[in-house]
Amino acid sequence: MVQRMAMAIGGTLVAPTVLLESCSFDPDTTTAGPLRLAMLDAIAETIIPRTATAGARDAKIGAFIDVMIRDCYYPDMQEKLNAGIKEIAVEGKKAIGRPFEEATQMEREEFLKAYDEAANQKPGEKVFGYRQEGKVAADFFTTLKELTLLGYFTSEEAATDGVINYEPVPTKYDPCAPVDENTKVFYSNI
């Protein structure tokens, strides 16, 4: 009985610390070099550019993507993602005439449009001029887009910049609450 009580109390004291620590992201934990981070930031910034609100580069999404690839994917998927990132760097330099990360927003968008279209193709359709059987060759790009969106919309920059808003409602759920263009959907008062 005493042992169970001690385990319950210990778990109650340790669990919140472990859970809260796992929810934070420190961009300094990445092991990527500056060239890889610049490349990942350029890809992410192309997907979510800076406008009146913070862009993906401001939220350090390149470091987030690198850490997620390293820590959360199996080696075979890591190889596919890393090969895709390298392909974007090499082919982007050929197509644009300078390193992908140094290109303008418009040049990067135009170049990545082919990967986006290829990722949305159905098996058996032509991708990059070749008929694909089974999975599409550019499916890594969909994963990069998903990681960019996940990192950005869970970042402090997006929350504090007014991109997403959370308003906790401690009352009953009202599915017909009035909403207008000024209603905040996520509010962060950290």
Give an overview in words:
The protein is built from 7 helices and 2 strands. It has 190 residues and is mainly alpha-helical. The chain has a two-stranded antiparallel ribbon with strand order 1-2.
What's the quick description here?
With 190 residues, the chain is mainly α. It is 55% helix and 2% strand.
Low-pLDDT residue spans: 15-23
* Coarse shape: globular
Helix content: 55-70%
Q: Separation of termini?
A: 40 Å
Radius of gyration: 21 Å
Largest beta-sheet characterization: 2 strands, antiparallel
Share of residues in strands: under 5%
Q: Label the structural class.
A: mainly alpha
| Helical stretch tally | 7
Strand order of the largest sheet: 1-2
How many β-strands, per DSSP? 2
Count of distinct structural domains: 1
Order of helices and strands: HHHHHEEHH
Average pLDDT value?
78
